[in-house]
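Ticket #4471: structure output looks truncated?

Reporter: J.K.
Steps to reproduce: submitted the chain below (667 residues) through the standard prediction queue, then opened the result file.
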Amino acid sequence: MTTTGAGDAVLAASLQKVLDGTWADAREFTREAMTPDMLNPIGLGMEEHRDHVLAQLQRLADSGMPKLGFREEDGGTGDTGGALTSFEMLGHLDLSLMVKAGVQWGLFGGAIANLGDSETRKKYLPDVMSLDLLGCFAMTEVGGGSDVQNLETTATFDRETGEFVVNTPTPSAEKAYIGNAARDGRMAAVFAQLITTADDGGELRHGVHCLLVPIRDEAGNDLPGVRTSDHGPKGGLAGVDNGKIWFDDVRVPREALLDRFGAVDADGEYSSPIDSVGARFFTMLGTLIRGRVSVGAAAGASARTALALAVRYSLVRRQFDHPETGKGIPLLEYREHQRRLMPRVARAYAFACAQNAIILELDEFEKNPEAFDEVRRREMETHAAGIKASVTAFANDTIIEARLACGGAGYMAENLLTEMRKDCDVFSTFEGDNVVLTQLVGKELLSSYAADFGDMDQRETVAFALSTAVDVVQEKARASTLWQKLVDAVTDREHTDLLDRGNQLQLLVDREEHLLETVARRLRKAQGQDGSAAFKVFNSAQDHLLQAGRAHMDSWVFARFAEAVEACEDPEAREVLGMLCDLYVLDIVDGDKGWFLEHNRLTTERTKAATAARNRLCTKLAGRARTLVDAFAIPEFVFSVPMLTDGGVDAITDEPSDEHEVVGLAD
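Returned output as attached by the reporter:
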């Protein structure tokens, strides 16, 4: 029996075609640009690491990759999907490089591209793309955190001079954790409360807006009124210079305001195409979801790399002798090792297909926004939030499990997994805290319009939820032809096989609907109560709201995966993808079988059957594990790590084969 098979190259290529998706060319372009020196460097000091990442960022700029994400009229190529896919691919190598690129081109450049007028874009974006102008995205404040709508930094218009005066009014208003702020950034896209003066001299507040504020001169010195500091060593992302920024009466011209959704004329009069402060705020944030999508995508790439390392290691690392052959047993032949890795491989495939779907949707939106009504746009933004939360949580869990699956070798920095774990950690909190984002998904399920909640207090939220919660799930589901086709296929929900796709869908949708109805019932208690009492009721239902959000994302990801399976033209690849899709669902059911039992969705016998089917699929798919991870198409130099190349593992000299046997295949 051999365990070193290089995998089935033909099958891997067919699976890769599915995973690469619409922007396969962009993936290949980025793969060709990837070189070993782009890998996360081990053992560098903080400043050396920052220098290394900045040099690699310049290489990316010189390659032309940043142009993908900007409009043709702004000097780019107008390929949003290609840009997001290229950012995703960087997650295979060094998350510091991905984050540095994301700050520069996705956040700072994206703010200018999506919120600025044509003159502002023409003035700054060529230098942003070339790295002649490095910038920051100064949104987060140390006091407010996720409560961006109520941040404290102010930008007050001075009628006498025609300038905005930017201030940090309190210690809690300092801009914190800002990428490029500690060292490299020369300008910041600053989010602040916009204030103008009324005719009677009073203040008129117009909500959060974004302004371009220079923070350093070309020599790297802070400009007058600006103070920056370095956060220093962090728990990861050592190549990114995160820092703090304070403003003390910093004056910028009126043209510094990125005025797509709110402008101030020379007389100090404010105007906006959107009257509501809350609606304006959410509309503005909605144009900046590229960063959120990129973070989820790169985290998914990092998880796939961790799985590929762990699977390869499990095929060459032997532990204990087989009682019949006397040879060491490869780790992946052990049932528990299969259960550790194979469900996560299935989820990696599911999330990759879902990520491709949200990128396709965002690309279509940016090319043809008129095709998106308010409902569709809000759904896209909500799923972007949900997929970010789901994938980054999955990535952190998977990288840790991959590290553990490699034992002591996995703990060595030279084998990459511990560095990946440190770097991916913060992905669960930046670009939106995962708890907050999952709650946003739950609110969308209740209201159909996340923006409606933005303008509501807790009492109004409760009342609105009660009037809209009942049919939201099924209405959204029916938008998918495949979804309805699967539901129609269910003839006997009590006895249909757990591997029947329609029954799998029904299990997930039933759970989602029940959780949503539970939230609505709990919120009903707040009807007629004042704001404080309504908040208590809303707060007490938060765990159910989060459960509903997670359940919805499970259903949505499943639907995107099932669509990808159905669209696959290669019969063998479609069969393997079908098994992975089955394992994805069975892993959800097995992990939440208490809920399915408590709510009479499954009997004890059927939950036992689900666990047994999960185990059988783990064993069957383990026989093709190398092929499954080869389909991730990660550059081979990533695997030139000691635990796979030299004395870190047992030397295996058997001739390679396409597949390997696994213990328990007939169980």
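Triage note (M.O.): checked the attachment and the full token line is present. The first strand starts at residue 135 and ends at 138.
Status: closed, working as intended.
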